[in-house]
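We modelled the chain as a single entity of 263 amino acids. Its sequence is:
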Amino acid sequence: MFDANLFCENLSRLRRCADMTQSELADRLNLTRQAVSRYEKGDSFPDISILVKIAEIFHISIDDLIGAGAPTEGESELLKSAALGKSCECHHVKVSDLQNLAPFLKPSVLDRAVEAFAAQGIDISNLASLFEYMSDEGFWNLLNSASFEHADVNLLEKLMPLLNYSAKLSIFDKILQGDIDWHFLSVLMKYVWISDAVLEAAVIDGILDEGVLDLKRKLHEERTQNRIKCPSCGEFSPAGTVFCLFCGAHMKPAELKNSYPNV
């Protein structure tokens, strides 16, 4: 597994063996001396795009430079492709390789690698740890192409804050198409307005189980119990709130009986 600390220690060794100061190396890389110092201490990692230049400065191959970090075969393939600005064929790259290298890769590079995996039918649950490192476009493409066969409710809970409205509707479309179990609506309907009419029509047409309607009523009851309406601004705050989160008005005990608006 690629070890960034080993790589950075080797960078320091290469510089010292070349009888070069941090400032001199920084000048040749168009960086600050502080940046080079952070690299050598392992406090940060060089942008993948300058690995080729580092290899040229010290007259070593890109393979030897990357190899100092003890990467797996897949990690080495991915890092070399990224450094050379080429698309990775991902012949030997595993999901674990992507997970380990994600913090070091540009979103565009990671997007392409993840896309190659998704094209092979990789389940989205195996790629969940990569979401925070991907671009919005790459994440959207993955959402539309990856399989949800082994995804669970906990994964969807993690996904929701990362999704825009269109992406959330895409999840609903996958539920209607049967790609995702309808029970996932227990999470989705906390974030997306889905009218009773739409759900009832889907149940009548046999697209959704009638249990969906019970689920909708249950969620509404939970919201009714856990939300209170401000007497001043009309906004809703969590039950037990003393002062309105929106206008600061005092929430009187009588307001505890006010319900959440219909969804």
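As a brief sanity check on the tokenised model: DSSP finds 14 helices and two strands in the chain. Residues 203 and 232 are 40 Å apart (CA to CA).
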